[in-house]
Specification:
The complex is a heterodimer of chains A (about 210) and B (about 180). By secondary structure, chain A is an alpha/beta fold. Chain A has one domain. Chain A is built from seven helices and five strands, in the order αβββαααααβαβ. In chain A, helix 7 links the parallel strand 4 and strand 5. In chain B, helix 2 crosses helix 3. Classes of the chains: A alpha/beta (about 210), B alpha/beta (about 180). Chains A and B meet through helix 1, strand 1, strand 4, helix 7 and strand 5 of A and helix 1, strand 1 and helix 3 of B. Strand 5 of chain A pairs antiparallel with strand 1 of chain B.
Chain lengths: ~210, ~180
């Protein structure tokens, strides 16, 4: 019987093209990726099925977790202007250097009287968990709470700088008790902000 | 292809010295592996990092005029009370005289969503008007419960709902059913 010769084929394939495509895609994704800012108050947001993205500009975020409230607004110019207005309100002078440093902070959570110390810290030290005690949100008598003033001045600053309405979003921790959230909502409603967003992460429709 | 011609031109005369043929082929498999790993990483982080925003409109509230309340018909109002331990209690009508017995439900597809859909259909058939859902979170519920119930409202596509403060009688109901 004649032997059937199976032709031996080399298993090596040329991967140059594949490599080209891969590096092209890699470059694309690296360039489009936005670096995530470290947060001083990490929260685990609840999931929902809504698919509306959070806008990138003119948005103020109230972060609520473990009973603490942090506040941050997008845009360096807006942050600088907001600090100026808060300084006027509470009669605290901020130096231009401090304003510059503050404008680079994504969010913060201290009493305004201790804000200078937080500004003076380095970014790593500032974001250490448990360092910042949260913005006071209890109103004393008829004077509004500090959180109220921060949100209000952020809205004024957004209007001045960008000529746009600032959206307020609440980023709460899943485990956060409802009374804390209610307090924040009441503060918003006191300044006639009746429409705001709740930030959630994505969940599949079950 | 990715091979370089290293045979040396062949222009030299009397080219007796034959250099060994070396192909410059490099095995690219690990490199491609690494590339795809990085691509996967960047793809996942860029698309999933962006959070979603759930819009919420609260009813107007004036501190100076607390009596200015909107009245809604009690027979087509569904009250949803959020208790602790991720449980819900709902009834139709008023707390002291509920039209349906208060029922304890779970979150999710077979729990409150079914109740919402059933009641919406019944009320629509009975009165020809849409159901009104009042969400009343108790102090023992957490933020996740609030988002979950709002999500259920979005899924069931009910248009009329509001978040309202819970009344003492309703806290009593929750206490009776041991979910406060």
């Amino acid at each position: 019987m004649p032997k059937v010769k199976v032709p031996r084929k080399s298993t090596v394939i040329d991967m140059t093209a594949m490599c080209d495509v891969a590096s092209l895609l890699l470059t694309f994704f690296i360039l489009t990726a936005t670096a995530r800012q470290p947060e001083p108050l990490p929260v685990d947001t609840p999931s929902s099925t809504v698919k509306i993205k959070v806008p990138e500009t003119d948005i103020g975020t109230v972060t609520v977790g473990t009973g603490k409230v942090f506040f941050g607004v997008k845009g360096q110019l807006i942050r600088e202007r907001m600090l100026e207005k808060m300084g006027e309100r509470y009669k605290i002078q901020f130096t231009p250097e401090e304003k510059k440093r503050f404008s680079l902070m994504e969010s913060f959570g201290v009493d305004i009287h201790q804000l200078k110390q937080i500004i003076a810290m380095s970014g790593d030290a500032r974001n250490k968990a448990g360092l910042q005690p949260g913005i006071p949100m209890d109103s004393v008598g008829n004077t509004a709470s500090q959180l109220h003033d921060w949100i209000y001045n952020a809205r004024v600053a957004t209007k001045e700088v960008d000529d746009a309405q600032m959206r307020v979003s609440i980023k709460g921790d899943s485990k956060e008790a409802y009374p804390t959230i209610k307090k924040v909502i009441n503060i918003l409603q006191r300044q006639k902000v009746n429409k705001f967003s709740l930030i959630t992460s994505l969940e599949g429709l079950d | 292809m990715a091979e370089l011609d290293t045979s040396g031109g062949g222009k030299k005369k009397g080219g007796k010295i034959r250099s060994k043929k070396h192909t410059a082929r490099v095995d690219m498999t690990p490199m491609v592996d690494l590339m795809f790993l990085l691509i996967t990483f960047f793809m996942l982080t860029t698309t999933l990092a962006k959070p979603q925003a759930m819009d919420l409109a609260m009813p107007d509230k004036d501190v100076n005029k607390p009596e200015e309340q909107l009245d809604v018909a009690d027979n087509r109002t569904m009250n949803v009370l959020l208790g602790n331990k991720d449980r819900i209690e709902w009834y139709i009508g008023m707390a002291d005289n509920p039209l349906t017995p208060p029922t304890v439900e779970n979150y999710g597809k077979d729990g409150i969503r079914k109740a919402l859909l059933d009641q919406a259909k019944q009320i629509k058939a009975k009165y020809g008007k849409d159901i009104m859902v009042l969400i009343k979170p108790s102090d023992k519920s957490n933020y996740k419960n609030l988002v979950d119930i709002l999500d259920e409202i979005k899924i069931t596509n009910l248009q009329r709902y509001a978040i309202v403060d819970i009344a003492d009688a309703e806290v009593g109901l929750l206490k009776r059913d041991n979910i406060y």
